[in-house]
Amino acid sequence: MPALGHGLSFPLSEIDILRDCVSVYCEWLSALLPNPKSSVPGPILSDPNHYARIIINHFYYLFVPRGAQGPDVINRQAVLCHRVLRTLQNIAQNSPCLSEDTWQTLLLFLLHINSALLSPPTIKVPDESEGAPSSTLSLNFTGDVPEDAGEQLCERVLSVLFETWLLACARCFPPPPLWNALRESCQRWRHRVGLIDQWNRINFALTRKLIGFMYGPSFPEITISAEDDLNIIPTNMSRDCIAQVWYRILHIIGNPVDLSRHTVISKTPAFLKYAISSALVIEPSQHPCLQMLPSIFLSAMKGVSGLVDAFLGVPNTSLDNLNQKGRQISPSSSFSLSAECRGEDAARLLANGRPKCNSILHLFGPWLFEAALINCNLQASPGPQHKSDVGSNAGSGSRRPVSVFAGEGSRKSSDSSAPGDSHADRLANLTPQHFQSGRAEALGALCRIFCSKKTGEEILPVYLARFYIALHQGLRQSDPSVSASHHESGHSSSSRSHGIRNGICSETAASILVNGVDLFRLDLQGVVSLVPSVLGVLECVLPEGELNAPSHLPVTLLRRAATHVLLSILPLPLHFQGLQVKEVGSNSGERLALSHLRPQLVNLLTSALQVETDPANTQMLLGGLLFCVQDAALCEVMDSISQHNFSTDRDHNIMSSGASDTVSSHGDYNSLDESCEVLSDGSLGQVGSSNFSSAATSHATLTSATDGEVLPVLEDSDSAHALFVRAIYLVCHRLISSWKSDVNVSLAGLELLSGLARLSIAEQDGLECKRAVKWLCDYIAYQCSRPPRAHSKDLHSTIVAAFHCASVWLVAHPYLLQDKECLATVLEVVELGISGSKSQVKSSDAPRLKHEKELKPASMRVRDSAEALLSCVLSQVGTFPSVCGAESLSSLLDEMTLLRHCNTWGGSDQLTRDTAAQHFRYFVAQNSIMLALLEQPLGNHQDPQPTVTALIRGPFGRVAWTMQLRHLPRHKSSAKLYTVNPGRPLPTNDVGIKHNVKPKYFPESVERIPLCKADKSIPTLESVIMNDEKSALEHDKLLQILDHQIAFEESVRRQVERETSEYPDVETECVAPPLCLEFQTARLLLSHFGFLSLDALQESVESAVPSLVALDSSMAGFARDLDVLDTTNNRTVDTAHIFYVRAGQSAPQDIMSNVVSSSSVHPHFLEFLNGLGWTVNVYQHPGWTGLTSTAFTVTSPPYDGTGPVDVNHGGSGFSGRSHVLYWSDALSEIAFVVPSPTFGQPSPGHQPSSTNNINTVGFVLDQCDRVGGGGTGGGSGSERSDSLPPYDGDVETGSSISSHTSQISYGHGNENKNRKFGRQTSAMSCNDHKVFLVWLESFDDCYTFPANELLCETVTGLESSSWKDKEANVYIIYIHALTNGLFRIKLQGQNAKLNMAGPLVDGQVVSRRVLGTLVRQTALNMCRRRRLESDSYQPPHVRRKLRIQEMVQKYRYEMNEPEFYTHLFTSPLC
Description:
By secondary structure, this protein is an alpha+beta fold. It contains 48 helices and 19 strands. The strands form 4 sheets. The chain has an 8-stranded mixed β-sheet. A 5-stranded antiparallel β-sheet has the order 10-9-8-7-11. A 3-stranded antiparallel β-sheet has the order 2-1-4, with no helix packed on it. The chain is elongated. The relative contact order is 0.06.
C-alpha cells in the first residue's frame, strides 16, 4: 500500500502507473460493500474500515495539481479523479459498515481535495458568454498559463462533497470541527462559480424538504426538474436533522454580500501566494479571476431570492429560474403584471399560510439589506444608536438587526477604507456598478417580502426603516452614469433630484417597480415618505416613448409596473392634503406637502397616455384618469359645502375620511423620525399618537383643523374643470387617431367619456361638451366608413358603444340639442347607422331622399344602437327623469287602472286583466307599435267631446294618452256659441203656392194598345182565385191588410197636413237638438292618422303584414302575453350582489350572517352601500328589483314590508325581501342586493312555483313558449336578457323571433338577398353571468372566497334552465379598506375577450368619496361588455318589437278590407 500511495503521486506523464494504482485501490475499496470483489486481499476484508481510511488518504495525491500541464494531460488526470469520486460516492451510499472514523476521514478527504483544487485562483480567463452578466465589463487580462485542473473538476468535486456530506448527516452527523472546516473552506472557494451553483442546488433541495414538513402538503413546493436533485436528500434524514443541516448549509459561505468585495474574496493564502509568485499580479485583489465576482454575486443573490420566494409560497419557484439571465422578477411579480393572468381562478400568487415578514427578514434580511445598500455612502442622523452594531457580525445572519445601519461598518471598512489604493486604479473597470444586477435582485426580494404583508400584520420598525432607505437609494442610483458619491444633503427633493436621466431606467429602479407594485396598496407605516423618490422614477419611465430599460426586462412589463404604482399613488395628494413629508435620508429641514405633487401626478398620467402603445397599460391609465377627474370634482363639491376639509367626526364627513383616519407614519427609530409629519400648530394639523398592542409602533393622526388654517388650494391646471377639459381632448383625440383599431382600448375610452358625461362640474363648458359629442359622431362615421374587410364583430362593438356614449352625453347635457349644428351632427350619424349612408355627404351636395337610398346598415347591431339613440333624442333628452321618476321610463297606467277611472265603471272589485282587455280595441301599426284604444271617457273629463284613451306600447316603452276631438282650442271651449232659450220665431205666412201633381208612371196611350197572345199567356188574378178556395181566402186577408194600411197612412197624412198647415203651432217649441254622446272614436283616431286607407290595410311587397292589423283580445292567453310584453323592460337591467367577509371567513353562511347587524360590519360599509344607489321598496317599485317575481310591478307585500329599513341593519335591509338598492339612468338600471340569511321568511332567491301569479315571469314565459311553439310560428327564441329567463327549447327556423331579420326585408336585389344582416343565431340571452361586490376585512380572503357556493343565493329569475350545470361567469370586485382611509380594489373573472372593464383597475387604490360611484360604473361596464361579447344578445327595444310581432302572429284578425271596415263600425266592446 505505501508503494501504491507513492505511485499516486507520480507526475501525469506516468499516466499508466496512475491508472493502475487507481484501479487497484478502487477494487480493494469494494470490501466496504455488501458484495466485495474477489481480488480484495484477506486482511482488508477482515478490517475494511482501517484500510479504507489509508486508501482514502492516499487518493489525495491523485488530486493534487501538477502545475502547468497541457490540456490533454489535465483531461487524463480528470478521468482518474472522476473514477475515484464515483467509487467513493458509491461506497458512501451503499456501504453498510462505514465507521464513524471512516466517515470523518472521507469528509476530510473531500475537504482537502476541494481545497487543493479550488483554493488557488482560477487560471482561465472568463468572458461574457460564459455566464458573466451584461453589466460585467470584459476585463482583458491574459496569462501565459493554461487552464487548471480545478476549473475542470470544480463542479464534480463540489457535488460529491455536498452529497456525501448530506449522507453523513443522515448516518453519522459530522462533529462541529468538521462543520467549521467546511465553512472556512467554502469561504476560500467563493471565487469559483461552481460553489455558488452547488450551494443554490443544495439549498433548494433542503428548503423543499423543510417547507414540506413545516407548512404541510398544501403549501406550494419548489419545483426541481432534475431527477437526481430530487434524491439528494436521504430519505432517512429526520426533520430535526433537515432543519439543522439547512441552517448550517445556508451559512456555509458566510455573508454572500462579500462576493461584491474583491478585496475580501482575495484575502486568502492561495491568492497571496499567487501574487507573490506572479509577475503580472502585484496585489491579490488584482487577479483576473475576480472579474467573475459580479456574476457570482448575482447567482448568490438569485439563490437567496429564490429561497425567499419559496417561503412566500410563490408558485413555480424552481432552480431553473435562477439560471435565467438577469432575473430580477419573481414568478409572482411577472404573473401579477401579466395581462393574461385574469383567469377565473388565477393561481394564488402567495401562499395563504406563508410565514410573517419578520420571520423571513430574520433569516435573510441582513444579507438582503446589505446587498441592497452596496455603493451607498449614507449619512446617518446624529446619534450613537446608529453605530451600536458596527463591529457586530450582522452579516452572518446569526442575530437580528437592531439598527438601520447594522453591518455597514464592516462593509465600509472593506470597501472604501482605502480609496487611494493602487489596485483600485488598476481594476477601475470592476466598479460597484458591475454589481447592480445582484443589488437589483436583492431589492426585488425585499420588495416581495414587504409586499407579502398580510392584513393587520406588524413589521418591526427597524426593518421598515432600513427597507425605505434601501428603496430610496435604489431609486436614487437609477442611472449607471451617476457617480457613487453621496448627493449633497441640501439637495432639493423634487422629482429630478434622484440622478435620473429621461428615458433611462437602471436595473435597481426597474426591479423595485416590477417587484414593488403593491408597496402603496398595503398598510405600511410611513410609506408615503417614498412618494417623491418613486415619482422621480415614474417620470423617467412613463412619459418616454423610447425607454432604455434593462435588456432582460420587457419595456411593456416595466411600464405596466410603473402604471400600477402610479395608480396607487394618485389618491394620496387629495387624501392627505395637509401631510408634509421629508425625503428619506435627507438631513435638510426641507419638507414637501403631498398636495403639491398632484399637478405633477396629473401631468405624468396624461403624458403617459399620449405615448403608451400597449392596450392593457392604456386601459389602466384611462381608469386612473377618470378617477382623478371624479375625485377632484367631488373634492371641490365638498369644499364648497364645508369650510373645513378636516373634521373630528370622520364617520359623517366624507371629506374628512382621508385626514381623520390613521396616517402611516414613523415608528420609534430615528432614521424616519421626521419622514411623515403634518404641519405644526397654527398651520394645518397636530401630531397625535395612539398606542397599539405593539409598543414598537405608533401612528400619526390628523386632528381637526382650526378656523384660522389655510388649506392648500388646487391650482388651475389641477382643478376639476381643467382635468375635465384635458381628459376630453386627450381621449377623443387618441380615440380617433390611434385607438380606433383596438377594441378594448376603444371601449375603455368610451367608458371614460361616459363617466365624464355624468360628472357635475360647476364650471362646465358647453363648448367642450359639444366638441365631445362631435368627436363621438366623427368616430362613429369613421368606423362605419372603413373598408368591408375591416368590418368585424369587434368593430361593430365599438360603434355600438359609441352610440351608447353619445346617448349618455345627450341625456346628461340636453342643452346640446338646442344647438342646430350639434343636432344636425347627431341626426346625421343616426341616419348613417340606420341606413348605412348619409343623405348629404358634403354641404354642397344635394340631399338624397329616403326612398332614393338603399338600406344597407353596417350591421343589425349598429342599426339597433342608432335607433336607440334616435329614440333617446326624441323621448328622453330633456325629459329624464319623467314624472314617474327614474324608476320607470314607461307610464305606470295599464288597462285595469284606466278602466277603473271610466264613467261607466261600476266599481266592482272583480276586475282582472282578461276582463279589462275586453273593453279595449287592440291594433298593431307598422308591425311594431301596439295601440290599445278605450272609447269610453274617463271620469275626470266632463265635456261631452269625442274622447279616446290610448295605451301605446312600442319598442321603447309604454305611454298613455287621452285624446279629444275638439273643433275649438281648449281656451275657447268654455264660450257658448248658442243661446239657451232662443224663443219663438216670427210667423211667416208667405209660404208659396202648393201644386198637387199626381205623377204618372206610364204614358196614357198604354191602355189603348191591344193585347197579344203572349200577354194572355199569364193568367189573371181573378181566374186563379176563382179556381182555388185557399187562394181566395189568402187574397181576402191581403186585401184587408192593404185597406188597413191605406187608412193608417191617410190619417197620418192628414195629421201632418194639419200640423204644418199653420205656423207656429201651439204644441211645437223650437229647442236645440240633443247632443250626441256616442262616438266611434277609435275609428276617428285611426282615420285621422291615415291608417284606414286601402293601402295601409293591404300587404305590400316589403312586408307580409299590413300597416294596421287588429288583434282579437278575447283569445286565450292574450292578457298573459300582454303582461309579458309589459314586463319586457325597455332598458338594460343588471344585478350586483354584495357580500361582507370578515377576517378568516370562508363559509357561505358565516359570510351572509355578517350583514345582520351594523355592529359586525365596517363603519364605512353602509356608507359604501348608500353610495351605490338609493333605497326602494320592492313592492312599491315599478323598476327592476333584482328578482323577477317582484320586478316591474306594484303589488301589496305578503307581510308588513312597506315600512322603512331597520336602521341597525348591517346591509341585510337590502336583501330584496322588502328593500333593495337601486340606480338607473335613461339607458340602464341596476339593483344591488345584499343576500342575508332567512329568518322565517322565504328567501328571495328561492321562489315557490305558483301558476296563479301572472307576474312570475319565468312561469309566464315558459307557458308562452309552449303555447306559441306550434305551427303558428310563434315560438319564442328571443328571451329578454334583462327581464326574462331565456327558453332552452328548440326554436323553429321560421319563428318570428328566431332571427332578428325574419320580419324585415330590404328589397329584392341579389345583393340584399345574399347579404346577412345582424345576428343569424338564436336570440337567446346571456344572463348566466354574476357580479359580486365583496368587502374584505382581510385582503388574503379574496383567494378563499366561496363564489361558487354563493351562486345559489344570487338567483334572479333571469338565468337559463341549465345555468347551474355549466360554469357560471362570476365577475368579482373585491374592496379592502386600508387603515389610512383608502380602499384597495381587486378584480377577478375578467377573462373574456373584451376584458378589463373600467374605470376600476385591478390593484387600484381609490378614495372614500368616489368608491361607490366607481364600483357602480365598473359593475355596469362589466355587464355591458358581456352583452357586447355575446353573439345572441339583442337590445331591449328589439326584444319588445319582436314580442309585439309574436302577438301579431298569434292574435291577429284574419280579415279583408270590407270585413275590417265592418269591424270598425261595430259598437264598442263593453
